[in-house]
Amino acid sequence: MRFRLPHEVSASIVAFATVFLAMSPLNLPTWAIFITWAGTFLLGGPTRDNAVKLITATTAGAGFGVAAVLLNQATGDMFGSTTFGRTVALGLVIFVVNGTLLAAGRLRALSLIPGMFFGFASLFATYFGGFGFASGNLAAAFVSSAAMSALGPLCAFLGLRLMFAPAAAEQPDRRAAAAEAASEASAGG
User: Fold this and answer.
1) Lowest mean pLDDT among 24-33, 51-60, 100-109
2) How far apart are CA 72 and CA 79, in angstroms?
3) What is the domain partition of the chain in residue ranges?
4) CA atoms of 125 and 105, how far apart (whole Å)
5) Largest alpha-carbon pair distance within the chain?
6) Based on C-alpha coordinates, what's the Rg of the chain?
7) Please, which residues have CB within 8 angstroms of residue 68's CB and are 6 or more apart in sequence?
8) How far is Cα 67 from Cα 147, in angstroms, rounded to an integer?
9) Does the predicted model carry a pTM greater than 0.85?
């Protein structure tokens, strides 16, 4: 007989464990894990292919976020140092970077455009929110947000693994268990 832990409990155990990554000195953006955890289930559940797609997309998106920050730093005063002038410059940066990100989504490896936006937004929130192992450092924000985003698919897998812990003498059909749990998680159950 298999032991079956409710998904609400197994996912919450994994979520509980991630909180410690936010403690000093790491100060990591653990919320990025939850974004990609949810994204994993939007893709149909934790599989190797879904993890690769999501990690590739979020890392690329974080890279586009870095480009946006650097471009904004370089062009922020091109229309003057007033709030309006800086806003126009930022708007143009976002226009160019957003369009480039969307165009990059035509490439097969980057076709998961929502995942790129997960990474883009996570980079911004990490950098401007003061998160990461070196607050205010753009490279540290990139590494921190990309690493936490990459943990989401792993946490989705671990939550399911806890949910369907095998009995001592039994090896569960992992594909069937993962499909069942993904179905339940998608349905809110």
Assistant:
1) 24-33
2) 12
3) 48-159
4) 22
5) 71
6) 19
7) 93, 94, 97, 120, 124
8) 18
9) no
